[in-house]
Amino acid sequence: MLRCDKCRGRAIIHQKYSGLHLCQSHFEEDVHRKIRESLRKTRIFSRGARLALALSGGKDSSTLLYVLKTLFSERKDIEIVAVLIDEGIAGYRPQTLQRARGLAERLEVPYVEKSFREAFDATTDQVASYDQKQAPCSFCGVMRKTLLNRTARELGADALATGHNLDDEAQTVLLNCLRGDVDRLFRLRPKRAQPGMVPRIKPLQRVPEKETALYAITHQLYPFDSGSCPHISDAMRLEVKSMLNDLEARHPGTKYSLLKGLERILALQPESSFQARPCQRCGEPSGNGICQSCLLLDRLSEGKAFKCRCYSKPSQ
Known about the structure:
CATH superfamily: HUPs
Number of strands: 9
């Protein structure tokens, strides 16, 4: 039996990048430390705040909700509201939404639910069935980001927390480098306040995916044999994920190195003068007058499979 390097108790994980064997107690302590370090950089919780948390029912967002609820349990000035999004994925999303509701109720965290169908008159399944050229993941990602921001703003949230982990961040960095997309790489910089945009934070960005999964399983937040979304289709991201996992196995710490490299690159970039302005169609923040959601819905509606209906403009 492997022993914890800190207390000689039974180890449940070996962190190759740190060389440590950790028992459950010290593993949890390590996860909490990494999350606290990420939160300190945001400077959002130094005083009272309302946090909207994107809760999908998966391992990452479930772990994030549980840890933040634990860390802020004594802070009466911190309020957490979970946001559940139904993208319209039959055979997958109903089960994960049920888990999300159950976890929020178990932790006594209030939650709100929104759906693509109500907001956009379109679902991810519809896109997948009629337009083979338009990857459903692209549609889903853009629309989910828009709906999360809109909902967080309606809730009066000071920040929107998402469950992006270390693997997600490292994959995005490498993917943008391979595509030569420097502009998109710079978009990973934490954004200053913009009209209509709720600041997004990623408290799990220093926690590896395997560790969020282990945390979720050991706290009964997520079933071990849970399936994945049937529309996963970004072949290049999957290749990058496989390549990174192979590099990490042979060279532990590779993912952390990519994250540190990104932080050094962003530190060299001058502060952006970008100013968001309301979309002419729906009122959501945009960079050029029409937001990405409306542009995407326009392209999809050209196929006449469904009629584009941008949701009503929010009150100013």
